[in-house]
Design goal:
Layout (H helix, E strand, L loop, with lengths): L1 H16 L10 H13 L6 H15 L6 H17 L4 H12 L20 H5 L10 H18 L4 H9 L6 H14 L4
Helix pairs in contact: 1-3, 2-3, 2-4, 3-4, 4-5, 4-7, 5-9, 7-8, 8-9
Length: 190
């Protein structure tokens, strides 16, 4: 009964987020996809929270990743890896927005790779030379772990941790950009 109520609410939210001029029922394929994604979202405490967060973030992410299945898979991975690293998933999305605009094949001029722009030397440091940093799950695991480490090292100072992540400690331009995207676009009130 609770699951049916949650799915009904999810469908109502889908209808609210659709264009006012279109006013049509949610796509059955999207409904099915959301149901499967929510069922696989094991990092959430509650299915309702999973449905609401996934729908909200999927709507925001549409401009970067048009394919619904790809968006929901990425969001589930972000939530899972961020939760494991004790990070806010919406902060991780802001960092990805800043680093790569959600391009999993992004490579910086310094050689950093993937959505979270991980430097390849980390693979050798970990004795994992065959890891693929353009694989989202691998990239997220590396990136979330690194950011979490820097947050602990900086005693929770987000600006300094982000600067360390970017290799720009002592400057605040990068940190301000990530925090700006977080507050203006990705932030979800706890």
């Amino acid at each position: 009964m609770a699951l049916r109520l949650s799915l009904t609410l999810l469908m109502a939210l889908l209808c609210m987020h659709s264009s006012a001029s279109l006013r049509q029922a949610p796509d059955p394929e999207l409904r099915s996809l959301l149901q499967r994604t929510v069922a696989e979202a094991d990092s959430f405490q509650d299915r309702f929270d999973a449905q609401v967060w996934l729908l909200d973030m999927s709507t925001r992410l549409t401009r970067f990743i048009p394919d619904a299945e790809e968006r929901l898979t990425l969001l589930r991975q972000v939530h899972q890896e961020a939760s494991k690293a004790r990070l806010r998933p919406d902060l991780v999305l802001a960092l990805i927005h800043t680093e790569s605009h959600f391009d999993r094949f992004a490579i910086s001029s310094a050689g950093a790779q993937g959505m979270m722009q991980i430097m390849p030397f980390w693979k050798a440091e970990l004795g994992r030379p065959h890891d693929n940093l353009t694989d989202n799950a691998t990239n997220l695991r590396y990136g979330c772990t690194i950011l979490s480490f820097y947050l602990r090292k900086e005693n929770g100072n987000l600006s300094r941790a982000l600067a360390r992540y970017n290799g720009s400690l002592g400057r605040n331009t990068y940190s301000a950009k990530v925090i700006g995207f977080w507050h203006d676009y990705w932030y979800v009130k706890p």
